[in-house]
């Protein structure tokens, strides 16, 4: 049985994706705007997303906008910012009740699409400039958001590892932008950037729910955008790591954060991507993994120890929390687990258990409409055409030898350690 059926329709200026399903009680709209990640625009985009969701010409205050959503049977409206590989993605999501379950016949789906058009195409502007107070309010919030990364040492360590590992590459930039650039933004130059983004970004709209495809197409006619040829990033093959970087940083922290970055030389859509997923599950992705058992459980060295993939950039990140005095022992054990994977020192039982957990995770993710969109959107980023079923079948076909071969491609790049002001961090 197919997990999902996606209808893809090219329309003027954007691509419409419709998934007709009676799995969810609400209908979900997710609008995605994609552009290359770069230092000139990353902070503008981070601010623009929140200025657009704060108010519109028709709803000139956040209160007016949220009151209107409440009138639509409590529709939800969310925004999100992400980087996938070296792409920067702004997302606008609307969850709205399906009128089939209501006593009256308010055309809620149409109203949801019309509301999205209002947010994107009728912003709160005067004289070619965004509303001053809205911009200043969102600048304050954005600065707080960037500062909060520094305050959360687990997140901060992840960010610092990426900055050091990917120095000189767009991926080193944080999706939330650069703190020192926030004050440079004015209502005028933000509006100038809005016009550029709305005419040049690659645009995709996902509509998920128990909907009529023909009706959806008709409702979307209010979303009118210029045709464009989106910028396609050239794939840069990861150069061989010439020397492992080791960075130690001292701050007033009680628990050290050890983060290790590897180049996998494999990305979403590559032939051995599914083998890499199974590799990561056995290595550090789950509670039965080698990192969890050997670093945390057996050696009692870490408060947490796990790994995750950045599928569109070809990176594997190890994250652990340790005492400063355990730095050498922890790094040694982590490197030993990687060597064990390359030698095939793992069992068939570990492989089967990992496949089962990955497939279960995939199906759990599709249990929410926004989770399903995130899975489908991988195809847009990587210019692929995988279904959820393809993914599950791909995982199930992986052999032990496939995992060993993909492990051999992985190269240690950077070791980053955030340690306290006292102790053996040297």
List the helices and strands and how they pair.
Elements (H helix, E strand, L loop, with lengths): L5 E5 L4 E6 L5 E11 L5 H13 L7 H10 L4 E9 L2 E11 L10 H14 L10 H20 L1 H13 L13 H4 L4 H14 L1 E8 L3 H7 L25 E6 L5 E8 L9 H13 L4 H9 L3 E9 L4 E8 L4 H17 L4 H18 L3 H14 L5 H9 L3 H9 L2 E9 L7
Parallel strand pairs: 2-6, 7-11
Antiparallel strand pairs: 1-2, 3-5, 3-6, 4-5, 8-10, 8-11, 9-10
List keywords for this structure.
6-stranded mixed sheet, 5-stranded mixed sheet, 426 residues, 15 helices, alpha+beta, single chain
Question: SSE order in H/E notation?
Answer: EEEHHEEHHHHHEHEEHHEEHHHHHE
**Contiguous uncertain segments of 5+ residues:** none
- Strand count: 11
Decide which structural class fits the backbone: alpha+beta
Average pLDDT, rounded to a whole number, is: 93
Q: What is the beta-strand fraction? A: 15-25%
Dominant shape: globular
From the N-terminal CA to the C-terminal CA, the straight-line distance is: 56 Å
Computed Rg = 23 Å
The count of helical stretches stands at: 15
Largest sheet descriptor: 6 strands, mixed
Helix proportion of residues, in percent?
40-55%
Strand order of the largest sheet: 1-2-6-3-5-4
């Amino acid at each position: 049985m197919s997990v999902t059926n996606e209808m893809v329709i090219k329309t003027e200026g954007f691509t419409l994706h419709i998934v007709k399903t009676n799995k969810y009680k609400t209908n979900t709209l997710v609008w995605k705007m994609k552009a290359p990640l770069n230092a000139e625009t990353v902070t503008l985009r981070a601010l623009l997303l929140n200025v657009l969701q704060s108010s519109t010409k028709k709803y000139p205050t956040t209160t007016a906008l949220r009151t209107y959503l409440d009138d639509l049977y409590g529709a939800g409206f969310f925004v999100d910012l992400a980087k996938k590989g070296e792409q920067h993605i702004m997302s606008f999501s609307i969850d709205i009740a399906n009128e089939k379950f209501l006593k009256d016949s308010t055309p809620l789906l149409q109203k949801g699409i019309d509301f999205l058009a209002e947010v994107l195409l009728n912003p709160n502007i005067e004289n070619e400039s965004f509303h001053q107070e809205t911009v200043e309010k969102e600048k304050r919030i954005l600065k707080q958001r960037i500062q909060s990364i520094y305050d959360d040492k687990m997140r901060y360590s992840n960010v610092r590892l990426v900055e050091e590992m990917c120095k000189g590459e767009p991926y080193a930039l944080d999706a939330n932008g650069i703190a020192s650039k926030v004050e440079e933004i004015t209502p005028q130059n933000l509006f100038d950037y809005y016009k550029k983004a709305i005419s040049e970004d690659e645009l995709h709209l996902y509509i998920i729910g128990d909907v009529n495809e023909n009706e959806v197409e008709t409702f979307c006619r209010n979303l009118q955008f210029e045709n464009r040829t989106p910028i396609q990033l050239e794939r840069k093959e990861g150069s061989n790591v010439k020397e492992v970087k080791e960075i130690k940083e001292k701050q007033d922290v009680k628990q050290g954060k050890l983060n290790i970055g590897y180049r996998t030389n494999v990305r979403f859509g590559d032939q051995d991507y599914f083998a890499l997923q199974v590799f990561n599950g056995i290595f550090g992705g789950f509670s039965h993994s080698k990192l969890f058992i050997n670093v945390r459980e057996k050696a009692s060295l870490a408060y947490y120890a796990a790994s995750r993939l950045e599928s569109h950039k070809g990176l594997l990140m190890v994250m652990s929390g340790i005492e400063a005095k355990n730095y050498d022992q922890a790094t040694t054990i982590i490197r030993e687990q990687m060597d064990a994977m390359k030698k095939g020192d793992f069992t068939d039982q570990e492989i089967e258990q990992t496949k089962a957990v990955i497939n279960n995770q995939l199906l759990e993710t599709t249990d929410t409409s926004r989770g399903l969109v995130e899975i489908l959107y991988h195809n847009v980023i990587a210019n692929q055409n995988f279904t959820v079923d393809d993914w599950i079948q791909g995982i199930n076909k992986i052999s032990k030898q496939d995992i060993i071969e993909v492990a051999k491609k992985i190269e240690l790049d950077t070791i980053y350690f955030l340690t306290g002001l006292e102790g053996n961090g040297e």
